[in-house]
Amino acid sequence: MTGGHYALGNPLVGPRPQARTRSFTRRGGRMPRTHQRAWDRHADDVLLEVPRVHGDTSTVVDTAYRLDVGAVFGRRAPLVVEVGSGSGDALVAGAAARPDWDFLAFEVWRPGIGHALAKLSQAGDGQLPANVRVVEADASLALRTMLPPGSVHEVWTFFPDPWPKTRHHKRRIVTAGFADTVLRLLAPDGVWRLATDAEDYALAMRGLIDPHPGLRLASTDRAPLRPVTRFERRGVEAGRAIHDLAYVRA
Fold it and tell me: Broadest EC class (predicted)?
């Protein structure tokens, strides 16, 4: 198999994903000691091993792979998928507030995963909640094939990278194609929740999703489980408004 996504040969991947997915390679870096300890202790328990198209360093999940959510969590419960969990603030808050729900987080920033594991461990007095799993992969591609249709109770896309430069807008995760992916995943009563403090990105989200024939804007209120993070506080202090959007099936 030759390199590059053209080699995947699967129409679900599409003919030209390179422009976006180059920015979602597995991102490493040195972790603070506490985060590394959390990774060493907990990664084997919550980080899911998935088959990858281009080897262990790739963030592209094999399109033939299907995740058995019931087997992974050991039960059937409402599933929340977080796209870009960052350092884990929403993941920690959600898992603690809703132990009756399961949370599947996608993140490509390894130090962020380590930070999230440290926060989860601290919140659980050294133990991680049983309702959290993490996939180190590009969600925009993996979610096209990895989960069955209608299987997700909520999809969270909180403060995705706004890629503020116009020439980088093509790298933004919220696209019409990603809206199609989310619609496929949502259960009949499912909700797609988004948040951003970038005014132009909020307008772009509305411009892309509001006309979607399968989705309807249900609320612009703050997501019930979304915590106030230090980054959000900084944004508010800098005068930026926080935009929350919630979409349901039309």
Answer: transferase
Query: How far apart are alpha carbons 70 and 76 in whole angstroms?
Result: 5
Binding site listing for S-adenosyl-L-methionine: 82, 107, 138, 161
The pLDDT of residue 230 is 85
All structural domains of the chain with their residue ranges: 35-249
* Helices (H), ranges, the chain: 18-21, 33-46, 69-73, 89-97, 110-123, 139-142, 176-185, 199-209, 230-237
Which residues touch 196 (CB under 8 Å, ≥6 apart)? 159, 160, 162, 202, 205, 242, 243
Topology at the third CATH level for domain 35-249: Rossmann fold (3.40.50)
pLDDT of residue 24: 44
Q: Is 161 tagged catalytic?
A: yes
- Catalytic annotation, pick one of 62, 161, 180, 244: 161
Binding residues: 82, 107, 138, 161, 165, 197, 229-232
Report the predicted TM-score, pTM, of the whole model to 2 decimal places: 0.87
Predicted confidence (pLDDT) per residue in 69-109, tens digit: 999 999 999 999 999 999 999 999 999 999 999 999 999 99
Q: In the structure, what pLDDT confidence band is assigned to residue 19 with cuts at 50, 70 and 90? A: very low
